[in-house]
Amino acid sequence: MAALSASRNTPLRSIRKKLSIPLKANAQVYEGGLIAVDATGYGIDAAAATGYQLVLIASADATGTAADGGASVDAYVCEAFVDNYASDLVVQADLGKTVYVHDDHTVAHTSTGLSAAGTLTELTSAGCWVSFGGGI
Length: 136
What we know:
Elements: E1 12-22, E2 28-29, E3 34-37, E4 43-45, E5 54-58, E6 62-63, E7 72-84, E8 98-103, E9 106-108, E10 116-123, E11 128-132
């Protein structure tokens, strides 16, 4: 799967909170996509990487300025329906366990080279319901 290049109509449920996330310089995030807060504390488009502190769902398209924190985007702490990475499928035994960021709309089963995305709350043949935002 490829990263988003436009907004995504991501089904949401159990919205617990909306947070304003300052963006990393020149970051591009899309509405409905996974936004990751990296080790610097700024939001970026989620991708296959380690070191994310938090993963949320972007509520709008947003582009960072030339400076870290020069722009921000609201993001949801919620459950969202995302894609299941075909090469590393999340399985029913992952229910209640951590799944991992593959890209800005896809989660994977194993952690190798990936950051935690959230907790699997439901698995369907079409994708995964994941609780994003941890204990926030």
